[in-house]
Amino acid sequence: MDRIITLNEVAKHKNQSSVWIIIHDSVYDVTSYLEEHPGGSDILLEVAGKDGTQGFEDIAHSDDARELLKKYKVGVIDPTEIPTTEKPSIIEWYRTSLYISQFTFIDKLKKRPSCQYVEDMDSKEKSWRTYDGSSSVRPVESKKSVHSLTRPPSRPCESSKLKWAVIALAGAVVIGFAMHRYLSK
Ligand code: HEM
């Protein structure tokens, strides 16, 4: 079984004499690998005692590098310390969207500052990326699966609310005008 390690404990291993790095919620002791690392030791020391997932994924390490990780694993982060406060994914958002049947929706959404769940869509339009509120962007389900969702809206974005407010106001004006005409006869 994996050893459970707290963030506090990882934080203690932050200099050359002992370097622990978190990658995808697992903890690696790379002290003996510092000088061998093809990307240099400095880059590892920068994330020593911390989460290095972003840097690790940013340079798209090879499968060999990922295999090598196993050799240095010392445990996993205490699950109670892993943040779980994700906002709804774009799929959740689509389920509740008025524009569910239209792919052009994505373009509308991008233009609406109140609906910031979509950050980007890849150029081949094969996957969607969502903005989950914590500045991390991740690919999600394919367009097809988005398209197949048909639940009615229950969480419209601000501009939809605005639309209904305008309709209600227009209705009130029409009724007011009709009442005025009726009463002044
Ligand atoms: C902690 C475990 C890590 C291992 C076992 C590891 C392993 C490797 C390996 C084997 C390579 C050669 C290229 C490849 O096969 O992908 C490499 C390159 C590199 N790594 Fe890491 N790495 C680790 C962490 C990191 C982290 C946390 C960062 C950044 C914050 C990083 C940045 C780099 C860079 C910049 C290169 C050079 C890429 C190039 O010159 O093209 N590595 N690493």
Briefly summarize what is shown.
This protein has 185 residues and is of the alpha+beta class.
Structural class: alpha+beta
Order of strands in the sheet with most strands: 1-5-4-3-2
SSE run: EHEEEHHHEHHEEEHH
Sketch the major β-sheet: 5 strands, mixed
Helical amount among residues, as a percent range? Answer: 25-40%
**What shape does the CA trace take?**
rod-shaped
Tally of separate helices: 8
Unreliable parts? 85-158
The fold-level CATH name of the largest domain is Flavocytochrome B2, Chain A, domain 1
Radius of gyration: 26 Å
Task: Report the β-strand fraction as a percent range.
Answer: 15-25%
Bound molecules: protoporphyrin IX containing FE
What separation lies between the terminal Cα atoms?
86 Å
Note down, in words, how this protein is organized.
The chain has 2 domains: 4-81, Cytochrome b5-like heme/steroid binding domain (Flavocytochrome B2, Chain A, domain 1, Roll); 90-159, no CATH class. It has helices spanning 7-11, 41-46, 53-58, 63-72, 90-95, 105-111, 143-147, 158-183; strands at residues 4-5, 14-15, 18-23, 26-29, 73-77, 118-121, 127-131, 137-142. It is of the alpha+beta class and 185 residues long. The strands form 2 sheets. The chain has a 5-stranded mixed sheet. The chain is 38% helix and 18% strand. Residues 85-158 have low confidence and may be disordered. Protoporphyrin IX containing FE (HEM) is lined by residues 21, 23, 28, 30, 37-39, 43-44, 47, 52, 55-56, 59, 61-62, 64-65, 68-69. The site of protoporphyrin IX containing FE (HEM) has 20 residues, from strand 3, helix 2, helix 3 and helix 4.
